[in-house]
Amino acid sequence: MPTDSLARLDAGRFALGSWHIFSRLSLEEGAALVRRALDLGITLFDVGDYWDHELSNEERFREIVRYLGLGRDDYRVGIKVFTNSLESRDALVKQSLLRLGIAHADYVVCSRPAVGEALEDAVAAMAGLVSSGLTREIAASLWAPEMLGEAMDLMVVRNLPRPRFLQLQYNVCRRSVVESEPYETLFERTGILLQAADTLEGGILAGHLHRDRYNPGDRDRGHWFPDRNIPRDSGGIRPAIRAMVPGLEAGAARLGVTPAQLAMAFCLLHPALDTLLFGATRPEHIAENLGALDLARERPDDVREAVAALAVAGAAPPPIFDVSAGMH
Fold this sequence. Notes:
InterPro entries: K_chnl_volt-dep_bsu_KCNAB-rel, NAD(P)_OxRdtase_dom_sf, NADP_OxRdtase_dom. Belongs to the shaker potassium channel beta subunit family. Keywords: NADP, Oxidoreductase. Residues 15-297 form the NADP-dependent oxidoreductase domain. GO terms for molecular function: oxidoreductase activity. Helices cover 39% and strands 13% of the residues. It is α/β, with parallel strands linked by helices. The chain has a single domain (3-325), classed as NADP-dependent oxidoreductase domain (TIM Barrel), CATH 3.20.20.100. Strands 1-2-3-4-5-6-7-8 form an 8-stranded parallel barrel. Helix 7 links the parallel strand 6 (165-169) and strand 7 (193-197). Helix 2 (27-39) crosses helix 3 (57-68) and helix 2 runs parallel beside helix 10.
């Protein structure tokens, strides 16, 4: 990463969110978390809702905003629209905004077209979210690089809003997708940026080795997550990632930082990075994680060297899924 890019690393590179962060907290706990983030310069909150919790993430965030007395200009918010064969993107975004109690999002992350949906229709629907005022920007997730490149070319020809970033799982172990030739070409050719998600592998890279993925139906079978659910293990490499944690801890110890700081500093060094999405439930963890900024700015070569041997082969992009069909 060029020196000038390193100099521009600041708290604005972070987005607080990651699965059901806010819905797992009491109102007071959530308010303390958001207040600390804002005080430290983090203004972007990803509140995309998911199926595996009883309280809406978006509704809890709305309560937090009201509790803190925040104005709409005090924070930025991002939501997600997953492939849904029964409802339009427009309708789904309006439902999210209603739960949030706001008129527009700052970005909407849109998954790739549903099975049987024409690319032209998907592109028009995504652009319509901006032209109708429902969001300031669009972003993408669950897109293959070739399809997204084709979509962005179409957007250029039609003078339509293009997605600002592509959200992908990316961390010190799960890097083979983002760093593959097709995605690197996409970043370079189209100028789309990267939002790094799952940067701590659901907390596993921070030492929570017991965490894993649970799916619809597991609750009915009496099998449910002990403290939090985490994203799917695309490629089936999570056991190998757990095996890399001691190496991450050793590298962090050599640099005098925490494993989370080292892992996040690595993500900050990606040349196409727009934002790094991370989860936290305690205010002190936010301040601690921001230490990754100084580490990335001041010791980039040390960071790369410390994690060089931690990459795990075999990561894969998540498969497409249709929420309306019960496929998560």
